[in-house]
Specification:
By secondary structure, the chain is an all-alpha fold. Helices cover 73% and strands 0% of the residues.
Length: 131
Amino acid sequence: MTLAPLLAAPLAIQLHAIAALSLIPLTLVQLGRRKSGVWHRRVGWAWVILMAITAVSSFWIHGIRLFGPFSLIHILSVITLLTLVHAIHARRTGNMRGHRLGMLGVTAGWAGAGLFTLLPYRIMGQVVFGG
């Protein structure tokens, strides 16, 4: 394991990776604890902010170009942001099922995208498995 590829990456990639990696412990806390109360809300808001940073920062990452400077992963970023808004709105209107499904959907998308970053030619793949 070496941080060299990440430290050599552009700032947008570093911010994206730090925000995405910060989601790991928060996700474990949210999935493992009771789904109500002040701690769920506080950790949840931190999670939402980090997820939004992860999604928004992706728009400055252009390693794979399929549609101009963008790729299919950018569609996931748009879906993530829209789903976060939907899930927050669902919670505020008492739609707990919509909130739960929205947040679980965003979590699944984040986890899937995270696994994709571990491919050998990707920066995080090089960080975890070596150059």
